[in-house]
Amino acid sequence: MSVDRGKAVAATANVRFVLVNTSHPGNIGSAARAIRTMGFTRLDLVAPQVFPHPEAYALAAGANDVLELARRSANLNEAIADCSLVLGATARSRGVALDELTPRAAAVRALDAASAGRQVALVFGNERAGLSNDEIKLCHAAVHIPSDPAFSSLNLAQAVQVIAYELRVAVLAGDPSGPAHGEHEPATAAQLEGFFDHLATTLDDIDFHKGRSARTILRRLRRLFLRAQPDPHEVRVLRGILADVQRSARLARDD
Known about the structure:
CATH topology of the largest domain: Alpha/beta knot
Helix content: 40-55%
Structural class: alpha/beta
Number of strands: 7
CATH superfamily of the largest domain: SPOUT methyltransferase, trefoil knot domain
Distance between the termini: 62 Å
Strand content: 5-15%
Oligomer: single chain
Strand order of the largest sheet: 3-2-1-6-4-7-5
Number of helices: 11
Shape: elongated
């Protein structure tokens, strides 16, 4: 494989670090410093409890450009709507079935996607509770930092630094091995969530569950489709099938 570091460096513009419901402004500043030292500048803040704040700028240690350009969103759905790869940092699976990646594997996957022109989000939860089940559900894979089980507590900025560092190592290694731009453009998070909502409604319309756990079935189907990485056209075809199923169900009920 030929090394093209320039392409890898350019791909960093497609990577964003997303902090969800951050409690302490100092952690926002420390996270900004962490990503800036590794060559990244895109920071998204989902419903931060306190921001802007002088403490954030103090702990950013000069990474003021990252804070000033930080985009704010009301919820995680909004922050990742245009992303086709969403990786959530979490210390545990919390009952949500997702592929689990090491920071190194996550970095390679993220850089492959970013180099193909796709938007990538690396998501970090609240300092106290981490990502909720509903937030993890929106991610395509989980990233687990293999800290010492006897003392596994990392603060938010430390977790951001670890993953940003692994991404930096991947960038410096050069050209990723992922697909060429345009070969396969997976659906965005917003397109997939629209499909999952449509799927859930359709299964209810045809009384598919029949007393079985709807949550378990939908979780397994979500994992299946996330693994398949359908493109936008494929999602439209799938939703067309669901719409026909719903029409047939309505006709059967009317008869």
